[in-house]
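for the recovery benchmark. tokens below, seq after
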């Protein structure tokens, strides 16, 4: 009995006390309110409302063209003796651009003058012969009526009269042709000096001093501002685009955005491409023909939720945004991303569009934290 008491006192009782102590029997109990962790406040966050759009800008490729463009050539052939411009020069109307050696053309003019003089001499000789034959013809005609000459003699004189008349007409035609030829070669002489047909820029020069200019081959290309952007648009915009409308244009080589006013619209749609051409006037004086341009046109689109790229929170394969709830606390919400639009990204799911989110400082945000000032 005494052994049992010892066993109970020295073994069972200490073990029971240890178990009770571990179970918290000897510790005072705390209420749930007393063990709540304090809410953390995060400052320095930038909060913005989610952007929702139902219209977007669609871009189309265009090209800058000049209002007027002239490929300057000559009607006469010869050596280029003078070139007074270079590419990029601005020239005024009437300025001498280049000169072709006129010696060959002058020689042709002199030859044409001599040919005209010969034709006029031939005409005078034919006229004198015709006048003489005509008098003989009229005299024989009266003699025939008086039966003083035979019919055969009269017929011989009449034949000479008709031949002289034909020679006179031929000589008259020769004079006319010689005059026309002289006029043509004299006109060619004026083409040896090539002047600007209008004020504009020399955008291309295909000839240098000493080259041979050939009729019909371009020597210079001259363009006159203002410039226009030419773009082909899908037929769905045909009823929406009108003369006088303003279009947003980006000149990529200059990195400049500007506006252009529609001045020309193709009256029909190309059945092969289902597009129509539009030309819009650009007032910017720094543009030149051939520049690549982007034309932006706004059109209705399905509702799209957009957030800044900086608002997207990534952690391994998780993608989300920090949403500020009505009570001012943060909630990390999973989202599915769509296409990128500039510095923003489309949200396909996870946001409705009326939320406020953290757009800067997402690395400092925490779930359940309060947004501070």
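predicted aa per position
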């Amino acid at each position: 009995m005494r052994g049992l008491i010892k066993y109970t006192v020295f073994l069972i009782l200490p073990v029971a006390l240890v178990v009770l102590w571990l179970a918290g029997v000897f510790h005072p109990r705390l209420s749930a309110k007393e063990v709540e962790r304090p809410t953390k406040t995060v400052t320095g966050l930038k909060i913005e409302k989610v952007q929702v759009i139902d219209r977007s800008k669609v871009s189309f490729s265009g090209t800058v063209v000049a209002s007027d463009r002239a490929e300057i050539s000559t009607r006469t052939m010869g050596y280029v003796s003078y070139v007074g411009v270079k590419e990029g020069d601005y020239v005024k109307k009437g300025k001498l651009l280049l000169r072709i050696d006129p010696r060959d053309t002058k020689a042709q003019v002199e030859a044409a003058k001599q040919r005209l003089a010969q034709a006029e001499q031939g005409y005078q000789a034919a006229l004198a012969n015709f006048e003489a034959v005509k008098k003989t013809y009229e005299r024989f005609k009266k003699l025939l009526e008086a039966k003083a000459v035979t019919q055969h003699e009269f017929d011989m004189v009449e034949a000479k009269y008709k031949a002289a008349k034909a020679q006179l007409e031929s000589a008259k035609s020769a004079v006319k042709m010689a005059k026309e030829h002289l006029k043509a070669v004299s006109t060619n002489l004026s083409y040896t000096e090539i002047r600007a047909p209008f004020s504009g820029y020399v955008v291309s020069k295909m000839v240098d001093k000493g080259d041979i200019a050939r009729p019909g081959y371009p020597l210079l290309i001259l363009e006159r501002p203002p410039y226009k952007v030419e773009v082909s648009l899908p037929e769905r915009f045909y009823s929406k685009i009108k003369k006088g409308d303003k279009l947003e244009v980006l000149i990529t080589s200059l990195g400049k955005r500007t506006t252009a006013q529609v001045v020309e619209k193709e009256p029909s749609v190309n059945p092969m491409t289902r597009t129509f051409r539009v030309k819009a006037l650009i007032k910017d004086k720094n543009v030149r023909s051939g520049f690549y341009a982007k034309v932006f046109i706004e059109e209705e689109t399905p509702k799209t939720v957009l957030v800044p790229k900086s608002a997207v929170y990534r952690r391994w394969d998780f993608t989300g945004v920090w949403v500020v709830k009505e009570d001012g606390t943060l909630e990390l919400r999973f989202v599915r991303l769509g296409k990128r639009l500039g510095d923003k990204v489309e949200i396909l799911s996870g946001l409705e569009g009326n939320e406020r989110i953290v757009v800067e400082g997402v690395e400092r945000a925490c779930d359940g934290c309060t947004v501070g000032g």
